[in-house]
Design a protein that fits this description.
Blueprint (H helix, E strand, L loop, with lengths): L15 H14 L4 E2 H8 L3 H14 L2 E7 L7 E6 L4 E8 L3 E8 L4 E8 L6 H17 L6 E9 L3 E2 L4 E2 L19 H8 L5 E5 H9 L9 E7 L3 E7 L2 E2 L30 H10 L3 H19 L3 E5 L1 H5 L1 H15 L10 E3 L6 H11 L8
Parallel strand pairs: 4-7, 7-10, 11-14, 14-15
Antiparallel strand pairs: 1-3, 2-3, 4-5, 5-6, 8-9, 11-12, 12-13
């Protein structure tokens, strides 16, 4: 059998966790598992090192022996597989009007799914209590053999990923209480409400980008996940790594100015792409919103040489064909040499669950050596 490539391992004893992550990552990427010999060849580790790592993973219940496969010479090889129910993570999507909570196992299978509406006047304290209630339900649904490793939460930015603190979570309207969200320490508040269960908070576009780029990294590849719903943003995966920027706030795609004298945006500036797209959505004109979105995507491709674009968010999912045609058409019209610079555009494969699935990946990814 052929296993996917993996980063080269090391035989230094001090990096045993790194090496174990490489082994787990290979087994996660290959649903039919692999032998110790194949794992050694793919990681660059010695057979002795792989033997020690797999013995420890077997003892921990993270992997299982799944029979034998014929060898090209010598005795048959034992097949090793990831044990899906050995651990789980909770993925949360906090949107303006809905809360989605998933329990996801090691191979990305959804073990629990809940959703509930939330109001536009939801304050941070109530939000934390509501999220914690749904997370507890998800944790209770974990397999008896599984450990819940933590909670990942995706929500609208801007936010400080390193500190887990929000900044203008929703457009501030005087007197409606939305200013409470600005500088709110969502990560620490939710962790405290959950009794110390580890929590990671990131922008919804970033977590969705993680969901859409699961699997082995493509060397040199660049993927942009573009999300149009109650706002507009992008998640960027460059060379296999999520790009957050210096202040961990990259991807404010919707706030590029495309019309100097345009309408006022919730961010305080005029002519933002987000404001223009949302204005068309309020008129019910998805085709116009799609053309505008395509202009912004073309700008992004020209700046970063992105080679793949994924579209998601409730507005896109309401009229996927319209947005696919609109963005593809603008790329064809605005890229100087579309034959040389081919950029495929697709609709999110995870649909409305992309943000929550990617939020779970914030927790699971590092276990498999993925930099999130």
């Amino acid at each position: 059998m052929t296993m996917p490539p993996a980063p080269t391992g090391t035989n230094l004893a001090g990096l045993r966790d790194h090496n174990a992550a490489l082994v787990l990552g290979l087994l996660r990427a290959e649903p039919h598992g692999g032998s110790r010999v194949e794992l050694a060849a793919r990681t660059g580790l010695t057979p002795q090192a792989v033997g020690k790592i797999t013995a420890r993973l077997l003892d921990d219940g993270m992997i299982i022996e799944a029979g034998q496969i014929a060898s090209t010479g010598g005795k048959p090889r034992t097949l090793l597989e990831l044990r899906p129910d050995a651990a789980c993570a909770v993925g949360v999507h906090l949107d303006r009007d809905e809360l989605i909570v998933l329990l996801v196992d090691l191979v990305g299978r959804i073990r629990h799914h809940s959703s509930r509406p939330v109001g536009p006047d939801l304050g941070p304290a109530e939000a934390v209590r509501t999220i914690a209630e749904e997370v507890r339900r998800a944790v209770a649904a974990a397999p008896d053999t599984g450990r819940v490793l933590g909670v990942g939460l995706g929500c609208r930015g801007p936010l400080d990923y390193a500190a887990g603190v929000l900044h203008w979570f929703i457009a501030v309207r005087p007197g409606d209480g939305s200013a409470e969200w600005d500088a709110f320490p969502l990560r620490d508040a939710l962790a405290a409400e959950l009794g110390g269960l580890p929590v990671t908070v990131d922008k919804d576009t970033n977590t969705a980008a993680l969901a859409e780029t699961a699997g082995p990294a493509r060397p040199g590849g660049g993927t942009a996940y573009v999300h149009l719903a109650g706002g507009l943003g992008a998640g960027l995966v460059l060379n296999g790594t999520l790009h957050r920027g210096t202040r961990t706030n990259a991807g404010e795609f919707g706030h590029q100015t495309v019309q100097l004298d345009g309408p006022l945006c919730g961010c305080g500036n005029r002519g933002c792409l987000e404001a223009l797209c949302l204005a068309e959505l309020r008129r019910g004109d998805h085709a116009a919103a799609a053309r505008l979105l395509g202009v912004g995507v073309a700008n992004l491709v020209r700046v970063l040489d992105i080679d793949r674009v994924v579209l998601g968010g409730s507005a896109v999912l309401a009229a996927p064909g319209t947005y696919l045609d609109g963005v593809t058409g603008q790329l064809a019209a605005r890229i100087p040499d579309p034959v040389w610079q081919q950029v495929p555009v697709s609709i999110s494969s995870a649909g409305r669950l992309a943000v929550a699935l990617g939020a779970a990946e914030l927790v699971l990814g590092p276990l498999f050596g993925r930099r999130t």
